[in-house]
Backbone:
């Protein structure tokens, strides 16, 4: 009796222990704006390679890599690797090397149709002692033995392994970074401060190894990297979002998202298609459409996700087919966040034209608490 | 001074439960007299002895010892009187086991604050010459009763009360002891009452009384 | 068997009082033992569980041998091969001014954690902030308190908690409670970065807890890590920590249990005396039974059953009573039994069925032990002989074995020479038990010898009937007498022994305090961790005061010598170079040599060690030892042993200069101040308070420190006194029981004496004289025996348990007083029992024949 109480309590602890970070990651109230942290402003030019690195003056930052991998014998995996940096906005005067100024959170997820559900792990640590950091000047984030680093030639190295699965990947850019919104100034809501700095690196040519149950598989594939940082982000009326980033077979890249409101309305929508030529096509809100085709109910959380959708940008329509249905990331026992983040195939005219990652949030409960 | 060593005047006594034991009892014992009291069990012989010894008080009537009403004395005064003028012989001897024979015999002298000289002589008299330093456990029943007799007479009491003194003894020894008591009473010029069931014992006395519900009556053997 | 039951019920019905007293005595003995065990084990388990909880599910922990370690080791450990999680912890005990807890413990344990690491090892320690204020857990101005700490400190969520660290004050916001804390456990949790900063321990950690990866061999890992870390760090397993906690209080716990056993022992003696007397009283009844056809075995069985029933009932009552006592003691006084071994916890008493069973069996066993000799005696008696007068005492003679007694005493003497067993003075306690048993068995013989020796002397004394009878009884019925005497002897000797021991201890502590507190004032900063508190500048300010004729600075630190043992205290202070005896209470006798400082070789640093260091670590004068001082170990030579009543786990002293040279640490924790002749203490204290950091100073007069030390001393002995009292009360029960049993057995004697002319008054006087004589003898022998036992306590058990020696002091006034009290009590008991001897029944008794 006592024992089980303890156990439950422990779970509860883990939950509330890290939950706040996820919540803070997603939403920031106006009141939480700090004098120390900088707001995201328009007319700011991103400067590379500096902006590949961390921006500790902003509250929240992430490097988010998703992609498709294939083994030699054509087995397919989807993967997601994320490093968050979160500024606590605390401990400014604290000279301790333990002072919690920035916290690093890392997520690792692997979709394997042979397993049938998402495998995922996450870690959290304060920056310090070289055990966890997010470097400025170039991409370099680390959390214990997990790291993501961008080499001089632009290639990213990722190594994230846990006891039962992991990844070690090398991701080589084949195109220039894709600046989202207005030269990297990406709005997320009607208010001008609801924005982030945001660039993507689509069509990363990926090779490496997938580790699973003490086996390793050589893989190659294509991946997509997002790097985004901001201080205020979501509108307080936001309920969740639908997002997709896709590498199209013809070399073009599509990124589109919509932010859903609590009343079932749409607060914001954005879509950009970069042609092989490098030309960016942006779409207005009424040119963007997400239409559910098939719903899937999670047996874990009872949330109902539109895992298959029809999306439209202007005149172009795609259909999204998931690699598998159960790509729900249920971390209620740790960070508390529940969302669907999965590999999808883009179908156009009954033909596969590309591969991407679909992210569906806010389907289990509103993200703003 | 009265010639009567003991006088019972209209003694009434009931048990606490209310049963009457002694009813208007009248009795007189002359100096030097040796009387046996017989009677059935439960008729009140022990109660009578206790009343005489001042260990119990009558509901009414008087017990006079040498003309002194012992029944009206305080416990301490009665004890004092008993200590000086009485000698006791019990059926179970009641010789103190942790005292030597000599010490046992000398007890009354000690209580009366008298010189202890006679004790040894007294032991000789009861036929226990040279055994003064022995302890009671080394003795036979008859010998123990001899010690008791010596203790009863050492301080030359006026009245000896003997309660079934031969009850625990075999007939031969009993005979010896009875002779001894008789002889010692005479030698010490004492009076005596012996309560007994034994006709043999009663036969050694001057007169025999029978205690019945209706009082003390002379009886012949 | 029905007859057994009839006899038993009949016996108890007619002597219900005696049966009850015996039952009660057994019950009290068992209850004391059981409750002390429950309390100690509950406190100990709770304390070790609480300290275990603090380290959560770690496999190993790494700490420095001195109190704190450098944080630079943490990242090394985090990436060390085989480590899954490294959890850095800074744990400090912080004095809460004006918040002294009832148990005299006024320090709050503050634990600095990195929540992200701790969540994987010790999730219970995470703070629970207000909803929506999750970041409070990483903030640098917040603290989370356990419920017990909140109620102790009288704060609630969002209040401000202020205290001093060193000479600075700190205010923190109480951000919430903890996920889970043990009831009564006063702890606080902060973010580790905040703790390092606010509590002035930048760069320091108390320990790093390690969780190893699956499949890593712990022993191999530990060896490898130990080699890697070198001598100034310790790699501690959870078992080591448990052993350390256990070692801390073991001697104390064992001593209390032993005392409880002594109470039980006096209880068994009581069983013996009442059974023996009841058998004497019933000799004729038994003889009759034998005549009627009872076999010896049946008779033996009959007496044993009586004892067993008493034992069973008494033990059951005792176990229940013991549990009730333990629960109420916890309820009203907390779990530490007056000692300071288990601070900051409030344990729950669990009814441990197996332990209860053990105590039940012990109680029953002790009762049977007390019954067996009388039972054998009853069975052995020849029925014919039993009917004879005076054979009572002859029969009793068999129950005492002079050779057995003398052998027991000899064995006791041999046992005092034996060393500790498993760290405990087992042989010392056995020696005490043998001394008690041997002496009691010897009493009847001693009485006989005594009377034989004084026979001529007594012949010349004239005495009345009362005196004569009383003496004669003692002289010629020594076995009877010794039954009552045994009770008096046992309780009085224990009282004497404890009184002498405690007085000697207290006197020694008192004198020692004079030696160790020579200055007028002692000034400390609010002690935190191994922080010095006074830096050089503050030291100079204090030295510059004109009011002081002398100023000494002390640096104290806790140093881990052995992972299984509690820390050793290191004192660095100026020690008189010409004669260290001026500074330290050095022991210099035939077993303790002293090396003169000027005879030391060049470059050899002197260290003075406490007696415990000799006992626990085998340090010898003249030996060169490596001491983990500062960042590495240094060689010192042991030059003398000093007496220390303050720290039973060991303490060492070195010259402050040597310490500073080795460590480079110039801070100190304590300043000892001697006042100029014409200066008033009050004035000086006020002047010190005027200093910029004056409010944060803890200023104590040496007289106050003395008083506090003695108060702590008395409090730790309070339970001892209580147990002793119980033993004495049980002993008196024994006296009362044996007196009243004797009254019954001697009814005919009193009846006869009343007949032949003893007044009531004289009989009472006789009884009082007998009782008084017995008690006087008991007191006399009891004093001798008690003195002997106290020698064992003082010179064997104390040094072996607590590793300190003391001088012997006899508390004459107190001894005489308890002797008189005992005499009066026992005599009154005899008189009280004697009321029956002058009642009407005894007159009837002369005619009561079987």
Residues:
């Amino acid at each position: 009796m006592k024992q089980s109480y303890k156990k439950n309590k422990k779970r509860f602890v883990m939950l509330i222990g890290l939950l706040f970070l996820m919540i803070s990651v997603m939403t920031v109230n106006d009141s939480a704006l700090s004098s120390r942290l900088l707001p995201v402003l328009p007319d700011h030019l991103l400067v590379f390679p500096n902006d590949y690195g961390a921006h500790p003056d902003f509250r929240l930052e992430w490097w988010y890599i998703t992609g498709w991998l294939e083994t030699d014998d054509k087995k397919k995996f989807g993967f997601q690797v994320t490093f968050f940096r979160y500024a606590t906005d605390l401990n400014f005067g604290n000279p301790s090397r333990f002072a919690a100024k920035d916290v690093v959170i890392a997520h690792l997820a692997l979709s394997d149709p042979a397993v049938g559900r998402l495998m995922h792990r996450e870690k959290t640590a304060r920056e310090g002692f070289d055990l966890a950091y997010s470097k400025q000047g170039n991409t370099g984030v680390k959390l214990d033995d997990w790291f993501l680093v961008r080499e001089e030639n632009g290639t990213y190295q990722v190594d994230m392994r846990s006891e039962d699965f992991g990844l070690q990947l090398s991701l080589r850019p084949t195109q220039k970074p894709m600046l989202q919104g207005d030269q990297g100034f990406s709005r997320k809501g009607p208010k001008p401060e609801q924005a982030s700095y945001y660039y993507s690196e689509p069509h990363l040519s990926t090779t490496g190894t997938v580790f699973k149950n003490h086996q390793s598989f050589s893989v190659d594939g294509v991946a997509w990297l997002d790097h985004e940082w901001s201080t205020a982000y979501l509108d307080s009326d936001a309920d969740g979002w639908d997002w997709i980033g896709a590498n199209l077979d013809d070399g073009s890249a599509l990124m589109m998202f919509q932010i859903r409101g609590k009343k079932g309305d749409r607060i914001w929508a954005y879509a950009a298609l970069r042609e092989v030529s490098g030309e960016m096509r942006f779409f207005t809100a009424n040119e963007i459409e997400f239409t559910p085709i098939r719903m899937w109910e999670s047996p874990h959380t009872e949330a109902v996700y539109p895992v298959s959708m029809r999306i439209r940008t202007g005149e172009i329509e795609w259909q999204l087919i998931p690699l598998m249905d159960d790509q729900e990331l249920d971390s209620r026992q740790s960070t508390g966040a529940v969302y669907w983040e999965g590999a999808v195939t883009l179908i156009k005219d009954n033909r596969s034209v590309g591969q991407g990652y679909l992210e569906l949030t806010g389907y289990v409960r509103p993200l703003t608490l | 001074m009265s010639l009567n060593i003991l006088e019972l005047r209209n003694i009434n006594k009931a048990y606490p439960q209310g049963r009457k034991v002694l009813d208007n009892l009248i009795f007189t014992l002359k100096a030097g007299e040796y009387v046996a009291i017989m009677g059935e069990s439960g008729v009140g012989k022990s109660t009578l002895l206790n009343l005489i010894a001042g260990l119990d008080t009558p509901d009414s009537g008087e017990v006079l010892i040498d003309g002194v009403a012992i029944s009206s004395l305080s416990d301490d005064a009665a004890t004092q009187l008993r200590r000086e003028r009485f000698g006791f012989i019990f059926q179970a001897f009641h010789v103190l086991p942790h005292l030597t024979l000599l010490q046992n015999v000398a007890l009354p002298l000690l209580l009366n604050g008298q010189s202890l000289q006679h004790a040894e002589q007294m032991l000789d008299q009861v036929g226990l010459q040279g055994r003064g330093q022995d302890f009671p456990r080394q003795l036979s029943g008859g010998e123990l009763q001899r010690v008791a007799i010596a203790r009863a007479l050492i301080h030359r009491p006026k009245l000896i009360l003997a309660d079934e003194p031969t009850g625990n003894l075999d007939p031969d020894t009993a005979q010896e002891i009875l002779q001894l008591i008789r002889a010692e009473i005479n030698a010490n010029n004492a009076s005596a009452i012996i309560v007994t069931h034994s006709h043999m014992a009663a036969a050694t006395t001057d007169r025999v009384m029978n205690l019945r519900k209706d009082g003390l009556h002379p009886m012949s053997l | 068997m029905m007859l057994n039951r009839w006899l038993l019920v009949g016996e108890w019905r007619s002597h219900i009082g005696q049966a009850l007293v015996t039952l009660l005595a057994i019950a009290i003995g068992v209850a004391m033992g059981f409750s002390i065990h429950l309390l100690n084990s509950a406190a100990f388990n709770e304390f070790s569980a609480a300290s275990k909880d603090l380290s959560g599910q770690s496999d190993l922990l790494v700490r420095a041998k001195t109190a704190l370690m450098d944080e630079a080791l943490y990242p090394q450990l985090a990436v060390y091969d085989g480590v899954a999680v490294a959890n850095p912890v800074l744990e400090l005990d912080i004095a809460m001014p004006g918040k002294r807890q009832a148990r005299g413990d006024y320090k709050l344990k503050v634990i600095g954690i990195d929540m992200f690491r701790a969540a994987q090892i010790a999730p219970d320690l995470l703070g629970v902030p207000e909803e929506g204020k999750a970041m409070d857990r990483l903030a640098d101005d917040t603290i989370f308190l356990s419920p017990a700490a909140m109620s102790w400190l009288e704060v609630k969520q969002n209040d401000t908690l202020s205290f001093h660290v060193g000479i600075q004050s700190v205010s923190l916001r109480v951000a919430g409670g903890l996920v889970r804390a043990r009831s009564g456990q006063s702890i606080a949790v902060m973010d580790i970065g905040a703790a390092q900063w606010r509590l002035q321990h930048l760069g320091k950690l108390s320990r790093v807890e390690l969780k190893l990866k699956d499949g890593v061999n712990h022993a191999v890992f530990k060896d490898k890590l130990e080699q890697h870390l070198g001598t100034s760090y310790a790699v501690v397993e959870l078992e080591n920590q448990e052993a350390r906690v256990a070692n801390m209080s073991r001697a104390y716990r064992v001593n209390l249990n032993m005392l409880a056993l002594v109470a039980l022992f006096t209880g068994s003696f009581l069983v013996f005396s009442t059974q023996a007397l009841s058998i004497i009283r019933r000799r004729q009844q038994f003889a009759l039974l034998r005549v009627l056809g009872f076999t010896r075995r049946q008779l033996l069985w009959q007496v044993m059953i009586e004892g067993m029933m008493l034992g069973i009932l008494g033990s059951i009552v005792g176990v229940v009573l013991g549990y009730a006592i333990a629960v109420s003691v916890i309820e009203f006084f907390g779990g530490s039994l007056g000692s300071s071994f288990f601070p900051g916890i409030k344990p729950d008493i669990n009814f441990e069925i197996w332990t209860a069973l053990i105590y039940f069996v012990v109680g029953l066993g002790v009762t049977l032990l007390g019954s067996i000799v009388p039972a054998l005696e009853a069975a052995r008696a020849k029925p014919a002989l039993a009917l004879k007068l005076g054979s009572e005492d002859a029969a009793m003679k068999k129950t005492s074995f002079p050779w057995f007694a003398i052998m027991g005493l000899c064995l006791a003497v041999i046992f005092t020479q034996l060393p500790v067993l498993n760290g405990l003075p087992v042989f010392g306690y056995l020696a005490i038990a043998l001394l008690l048993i041997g002496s009691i068995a010897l009493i009847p013989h001693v009485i006989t010898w005594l009377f034989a020796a004084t026979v001529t002397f007594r012949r010349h004394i004239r005495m009345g009937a009362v005196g004569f009878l009383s003496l004669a009884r003692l002289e010629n019925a020594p076995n009877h007498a010794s039954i009552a005497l045994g009770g008096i002897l046992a309780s009085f000797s224990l009282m004497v022994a404890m009184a002498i021991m405690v007085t000697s201890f207290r006197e020694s502590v008192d004198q020692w305090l004079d030696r160790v507190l020579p200055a007028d004032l002692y000034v400390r900063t609010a002690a935190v961790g191994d922080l010095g508190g006074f830096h050089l500048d503050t030291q100079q300010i204090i030295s510059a005061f004109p009011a002081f004729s002398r100023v000494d600075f002390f640096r104290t630190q806790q140093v881990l010598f052995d992972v299984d043992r509690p820390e050793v205290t290191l004192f660095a202070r100026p020690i008189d170079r010409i004669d260290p005896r001026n500074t330290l209470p050095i022991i210099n006798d035939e077993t303790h040599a002293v090396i003169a400082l000027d005879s030391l070789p060049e470059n050899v640093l002197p260290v003075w060690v406490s007696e415990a260091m000799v006992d626990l670590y085998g340090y010898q004068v003249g030996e060169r030892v490596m001491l983990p001082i500062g960042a590495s170990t240094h060689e010192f030579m042991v030059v003398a042993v000093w007496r220390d009543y303050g720290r039973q786990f060991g303490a060492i002293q070195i010259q402050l200069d040597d310490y500073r040279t080795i460590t480079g640490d110039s801070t100190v924790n304590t300043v000892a101040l001697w006042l100029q002749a014409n200066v008033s203490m009050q004035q000086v204290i006020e002047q010190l308070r005027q200093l910029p950091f004056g409010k944060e100073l803890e200023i104590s007069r040496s007289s106050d420190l003395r008083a506090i030390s003695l108060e702590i001393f008395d409090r730790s002995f309070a339970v001892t006194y209580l147990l002793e009292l119980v033993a004495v009360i049980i002993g008196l029960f024994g006296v009362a029981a044996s007196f009243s049993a004797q009254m019954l057995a001697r009814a005919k004697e009193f009846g006869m004496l009343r007949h032949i002319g003893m007044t009531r008054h004289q009989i009472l006087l006789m009884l009082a004289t007998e009782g008084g004589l017995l008690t006087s003898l008991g007191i006399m022998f009891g004093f001798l025996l008690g003195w002997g036992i106290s020698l064992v306590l003082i010179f064997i058990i104390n040094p072996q348990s607590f590793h300190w020696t003391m001088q012997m002091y006899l508390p004459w006034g107190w001894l005489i007083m308890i002797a008189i009290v005992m005499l009066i009590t026992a005599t009154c008991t005899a008189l009280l029992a004697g009321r029956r001897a002058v009642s009407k029944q005894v007159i009837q008794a002369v005619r009561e024949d079987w």
